[in-house]
């Protein structure tokens, strides 16, 4: 089975400091991979590097390939055609991820209109369908609402709807439930799994919550200070951690749970 | 939203009322008698007394105020103590000139500031962005009258392309009117444009850091389209605030530029009225300027609610 996403020797630097060093991994089609680590370990930067949305001051080297196409250093014109269509992303902070001055329906419809020949009316109708697919009640009403009229959980569903709009081959979720209520978290996770499951999409799930990784992912990568220190099937890594850092992460989360 | 606009209209009307009382009271408590001031030191007491009666200055202040305001509401600003001519028609004529000047100046400022500020923000790490910022910084330091004099030197005196001053009513000769408006508008607008460029730059920089812009990029929008579709409207909120303040400054500050370019606007009328000690005319002009500023604030408030749906709850 050839990999969908291959990250090889990814290195991210800013000025003299190295933020991510020699990160290599791959994700197969339809595979669900977790990326765990403490805050500041480089998880989100790795995701941004894959999306090609790194802050200007950060330099990337190594290689990121999607279906064999090199993404690192590819021209913006080419990357923007992939973004939102082949790779999509759900962000951590639903409260700020949506444009406050644009109706929700238009923001979802825009994701489709950018990558397909579809007129405004049809895109809006499809947007309402998508909002229904992420289980938003009264999707027609929500489509006409502005983000500030929705709750955090509802906004994250909208962000997810935008990400799923073109059935991406790879969905990257960067701590999608961290900012949400515990009661809402489980439902969002279900929706993410259902969303990628329906079309056989792959998932890169970034979190520091080991319980979430255990319930969502098949395979897990442990990042510490910009390096991958351990990787393998979830059961194996979380059941019998070999690296000291993973053990500490696990101990900390068990403490939290008890 | 309608409610919000009704509320702001009420605030506007209350503001106008308060302003009219302040303007009237301020000139009423000034030392010296209006009639005496207008007639000069050599006037006989009898003449002063007769003039006072003629203009109703011997009545109680409240009655004088109500009389004045009642007239103003019908466009009647009274009769000048000095020229004995009705103030209203002249005021309206002059206001038209000033409004054209301020409007055109603001247009020049916007045409300069929006594209330059945006480019300066997007390329803030590149030399071209720094150059724009530097030029804006320089422009801020130039006073409008100096800009006006330099523009006259270059485009009127040396090149002879445009008139160095004077006013042609637009209905009279639109082409000549436009030619006469270009230099004054440019000298007002260039400086304000430089100030505004810096605010546009800051607003766009702030918007660029917003999460929703990253979402827009993640959808597949390229940097400039993402900024245009998702950034400009949000960046417009702080810019409109500054624009409102600038318009108020321009309205009052047009005095200087009207002098430089010999324009028959409100500003030069005010300076003339003050010089002639024509207090009732001064009172009328100041009221019109204050109402103008209040109106600008009102429009800014309404624009906020149009730009940012979060402000529509009320």
TrEMBL record, chain A:
<comment type="similarity">
    <text>Belongs to the ABC transporter superfamily.</text>
</comment>
<dbReference type="InterPro" id="IPR017871">
    <property type="entry name" value="ABC_transporter-like_CS"/>
</dbReference>
<dbReference type="InterPro" id="IPR027417">
    <property type="entry name" value="P-loop_NTPase"/>
</dbReference>
<dbReference type="InterPro" id="IPR003439">
    <property type="entry name" value="ABC_transporter-like_ATP-bd"/>
</dbReference>
<dbReference type="GO" id="GO:0005524">
    <property type="term" value="F:ATP binding"/>
</dbReference>
<dbReference type="GO" id="GO:0016887">
    <property type="term" value="F:ATP hydrolysis activity"/>
</dbReference>
<keyword id="KW-1003">Cell membrane</keyword>
<keyword id="KW-0067">ATP-binding</keyword>
<keyword id="KW-0472">Membrane</keyword>
<dbReference type="GO" id="GO:0005886">
    <property type="term" value="C:plasma membrane"/>
</dbReference>
<keyword id="KW-0547">Nucleotide-binding</keyword>
<dbReference type="InterPro" id="IPR050388">
    <property type="entry name" value="ABC_Ni/Peptide_Import"/>
</dbReference>
<dbReference type="Pfam" id="PF00005">
    <property type="entry name" value="ABC_tran"/>
</dbReference>
<keyword id="KW-0813">Transport</keyword>
<dbReference type="InterPro" id="IPR003593">
    <property type="entry name" value="AAA+_ATPase"/>
</dbReference>
<protein>
    <submittedName>
        <fullName>ABC transporter ATP-binding protein</fullName>
    </submittedName>
</protein>
Automatic annotation (TrEMBL), chain B:
<keyword id="KW-0472">Membrane</keyword>
<dbReference type="InterPro" id="IPR045621">
    <property type="entry name" value="BPD_transp_1_N"/>
</dbReference>
<dbReference type="InterPro" id="IPR035906">
    <property type="entry name" value="MetI-like_sf"/>
</dbReference>
<dbReference type="GO" id="GO:0071916">
    <property type="term" value="F:dipeptide transmembrane transporter activity"/>
</dbReference>
<feature type="transmembrane region" description="Helical">
    <location>
        <begin position="177"/>
        <end position="200"/>
    </location>
</feature>
<dbReference type="Pfam" id="PF00528">
    <property type="entry name" value="BPD_transp_1"/>
</dbReference>
<comment type="similarity">
    <text>Belongs to the binding-protein-dependent transport system permease family.</text>
</comment>
<feature type="transmembrane region" description="Helical">
    <location>
        <begin position="12"/>
        <end position="30"/>
    </location>
</feature>
<keyword id="KW-0812">Transmembrane</keyword>
<feature type="transmembrane region" description="Helical">
    <location>
        <begin position="235"/>
        <end position="262"/>
    </location>
</feature>
<protein>
    <submittedName>
        <fullName>ABC transporter permease</fullName>
    </submittedName>
</protein>
<feature type="transmembrane region" description="Helical">
    <location>
        <begin position="282"/>
        <end position="307"/>
    </location>
</feature>
<keyword id="KW-1003">Cell membrane</keyword>
<feature type="transmembrane region" description="Helical">
    <location>
        <begin position="99"/>
        <end position="122"/>
    </location>
</feature>
<dbReference type="GO" id="GO:0005886">
    <property type="term" value="C:plasma membrane"/>
</dbReference>
<dbReference type="Pfam" id="PF19300">
    <property type="entry name" value="BPD_transp_1_N"/>
</dbReference>
<feature type="transmembrane region" description="Helical">
    <location>
        <begin position="134"/>
        <end position="157"/>
    </location>
</feature>
<keyword id="KW-0813">Transport</keyword>
<dbReference type="InterPro" id="IPR000515">
    <property type="entry name" value="MetI-like"/>
</dbReference>
<keyword id="KW-1133">Transmembrane helix</keyword>
């Amino acid at each position: 089975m050839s990999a969908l996403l291959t990250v090889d020797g990814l290195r991210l630097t800013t000025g003299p400091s190295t933020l991510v060093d020699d990160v290599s991994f791959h994700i197969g089609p339809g595979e669900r991979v977790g990326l765990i680590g403490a805050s500041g370990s480089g998880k989100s930067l790795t995701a941004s590097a894959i999306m090609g949305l790194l802050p200007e001051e950060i330099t990337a080297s190594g290689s990121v390939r999607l279906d064999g196409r090199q993404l690192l250093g590819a021209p913006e014109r080419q990357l923007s055609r992939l973004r939102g269509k082949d790779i999509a992303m759900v962000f951590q902070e639903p409260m700020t991820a949506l444009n406050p001055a644009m109706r929700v329906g238009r923001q979802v419809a825009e994701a489709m209109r950018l990558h397909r020949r579809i007129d405004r009316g049809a895109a809006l109708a499809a947007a309402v369908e998508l909002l229904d697919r992420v289980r938003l009640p009264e999707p027609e009403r929500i489509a006409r609402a502005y983000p500030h009229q929705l709750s955090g959980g509802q906004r994250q569903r909208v962000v997810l709807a935008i990400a799923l709009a073109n059935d991406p081959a790879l969905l990257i979720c960067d701590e999608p439930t961290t900012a949400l209520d515990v009661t809402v978290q489980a439902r969002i996770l279900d929706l993410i799994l259902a969303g990628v499951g329906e079309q056989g999409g792959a998932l890169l799930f970034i979190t520091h919550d080991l319980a979430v990784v255990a319930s969502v992912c098949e395979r897990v990568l442990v990042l510490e200070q910009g390096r991958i220190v351990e990787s393998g099937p979830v059961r194996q890594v979380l059941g019998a951690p070999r690296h000291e850092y993973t053990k500490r992460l696990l101990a900390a989360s068990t403490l939290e749970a008890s | 939203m309608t409610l919000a606009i009704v509320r702001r209209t009420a605030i506007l009307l209350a503001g106008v009322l308060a302003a009219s009382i302040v303007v009237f009271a301020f000139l009423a408590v000034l030392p010296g008698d209006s009639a005496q001031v207008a007639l000069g030191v050599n006037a006989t007491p009898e003449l002063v007394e007769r003039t006072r009666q003629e203009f109703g200055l011997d009545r109680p202040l409240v009655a004088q105020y109500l009389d004045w305001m009642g007239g103003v509401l019908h466009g009647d600003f009274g009769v000048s103590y000095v020229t004995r001519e009705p103030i209203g028609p002249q005021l309206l004529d002059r206001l038209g000139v000033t409004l054209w000047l301020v409007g055109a100046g603001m247009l020049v400022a916007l045409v300069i500031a929006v594209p330059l500020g945006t480019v300066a923000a997007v390329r803030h790490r590149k030399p071209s962005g720094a150059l724009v910022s530097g030029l804006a910084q320089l422009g801020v330091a130039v006073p409008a009258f100096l800009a006006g004099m330099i523009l006259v030197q270059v485009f009127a005196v040396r090149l002879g392309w445009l008139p160095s001053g004077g006013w042609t009513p637009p209905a009279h000769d639109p082409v000549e009117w436009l030619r006469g408006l270009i230099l004054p508008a440019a000298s007002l607008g260039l400086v304000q444009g430089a100030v505004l460029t810096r605010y546009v730059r800051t607003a766009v920089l702030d918007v660029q850091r917003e999460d929703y812009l990253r979402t827009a990029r993640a959808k597949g929008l390229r940097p400039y389209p993402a900024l245009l579709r998702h950034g400009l409207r949000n960046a417009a909120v702080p810019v409109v605030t500054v624009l409102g303040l600038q318009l108020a400054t321009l309205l009052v500050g047009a005095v200087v530029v009207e002098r430089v370019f010999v324009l028959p606007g409100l500003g030069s009328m005010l300076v003339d009225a003050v010089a002639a000690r024509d207090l009732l005319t001064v009172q009328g002009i100041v009221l019109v300027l204050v109402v103008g500023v209040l109106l600008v604030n009102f429009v800014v408030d309404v624009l906020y609610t149009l730009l940012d749906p979060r402000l529509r709850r009320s």
